[in-house]
Amino acid sequence: MISYRHHIVSLVAVFLALAVGVALGGGPLSDLGRDDKPVSAPTTQKRQVTPAAAYGDAFATASAAALYANGLRDRAVSLVTMPGADADTVSALGAQVEEAGGIIAGTYDVQPALTDDHEKSLVDTLGSQLAEQLGAGAVSGDVSTYVRIGQLLGLAVSGGADLPSSEALTVRQGLAGAELLTSPEDAVRAPAVLVVLGDDTNPAILSGMVTGLADKATGVVVAGSAAGLADLRAESDAGKAATVDGVDDPLGQVTAVLAVIRSFSVQGGSFGASGSDGAVPIP
C-alpha cells in the first residue's frame, strides 16, 4: 500500500514538474522558431512566479512538516556557505532544518580567497601545515590541494570524524587566520553538512572541496542552481555528496532538507528539477 507520506512526495514531484514546464513554456524555449522576435538583453532576475509555481511552493511549505516527519530530531547540521551565497536562501534553509526537528550547529562562511585560483599557493601551504600539525591519519596523505582543504574543513565543521574538539578548533582558527573561513564562536560540529552555493566557483576547486568534505562527514548535501551544480554532478569523485537544485524557492529548500535527512543513512544522489535521481529524495 502506498503510504500517505509517499503520496505527498509524489504530489510534490508532480507540482515541481508542472512548475518547471510552465516556466520553460514562458521562457527561452518559447522563442524557438520565432525569428521575427527581437533578442532581449539577458537579465539576472529570478524565475517568473507563475500560478502553478506559486502553488507548488505553497504546497511544499504547507506539507514540509509532514514530509520531514521530525526526521532531524535531536540531530545537528552544519551550514557551509560558499562565496556569494544568498543570505535569504541560507536563512530559509536553516529554518527548514529546524522545522524538521534539527539544530543548526553553526554557519561557516567560505571566504573568496579559498576558491580563488590565484590563492592556490596559500591554500596548499596552509593545508599542508595543518595536516602536519594534526598528525598522521587525520588527513589523507596523497590528495590534491583542494581535496585536502576539504577534508580539513570537514574535520572543522563535522562531528563525523574522530578528532578532539580542541584540534577541530585549531583547524578553524588556522583557516580563519588566513582569511579562508569565518566560524561562529560557539560552533559545535555536526555529522551532516549542508553546503549552499553562491557565485560561480571553479569546478575543479568545488569538486575537490566537496569530495574532501564528504570524506569526513556522515552526510553532505550541496544545494544550488542547476547550472552551478552541473559540473559537480558530472564528477564521479563527488558521488558521496548529494546535490539539490532550485533551492532559491521553497520547493527546492524542502527538497534539500529531505536530502539532509536521507544523508544520515544513504549518501549521494542528484535531486531537484534537473536531478538525475528524481525530483524529491525519500528519506
What does it look like?
The chain is an alpha/beta fold and 283 residues long. The protein has a single domain (71-271), classed as Rossmann fold (3-Layer(aba) Sandwich), CATH 3.40.50.2300. The protein is 46% helix and 12% strand. It is built from nine helices and seven strands; from the N terminus they run ααβαβαααββαβαβαβ. The protein has helices at residues 4-25, 51-68, 87-99, 120-134, 145-157, 165-177, 203-216, 226-234, 250-263; strands at residues 76-81, 103-110, 181-182, 192-196, 219-224, 242-245, 270-271. The protein has a seven-stranded mixed β-sheet, sandwiched between helices. Strand 1 (76-81), helix 3 (87-99) and strand 2 form a beta-alpha-beta unit. Helix 1 packs antiparallel against helix 2, helix 3 packs across helix 9 and helix 5 (145-157) crosses helix 7 (203-216). The longest helix has 22 residues, at 4-25. The two termini are 18 Å apart.
Q: Widest sheet: strand order?
A: 3-2-1-4-5-6-7
Structural class: alpha/beta
Low-confidence stretches: 18-45
Report the strand count: 7
Overall form: globular
By CATH, the superfamily comes out as Response regulator
How many domains make up the 3D coordinates? Answer: 1
The proportion of residues forming helix, as a percent range, comes to: 40-55%
How many helices in DSSP terms? Answer: 9
How do the strands and helices of this protein lay out in sequence?
Layout: H1 4-25, H2 51-68, E1 76-81, H3 87-99, E2 103-110, H4 120-134, H5 145-157, H6 165-177, E3 181-182, E4 192-196, H7 203-216, E5 219-224, H8 226-234, E6 242-245, H9 250-263, E7 270-271
Parallel strand pairs: 1-2, 1-4, 4-5, 5-6, 6-7
Antiparallel strand pairs: 2-3
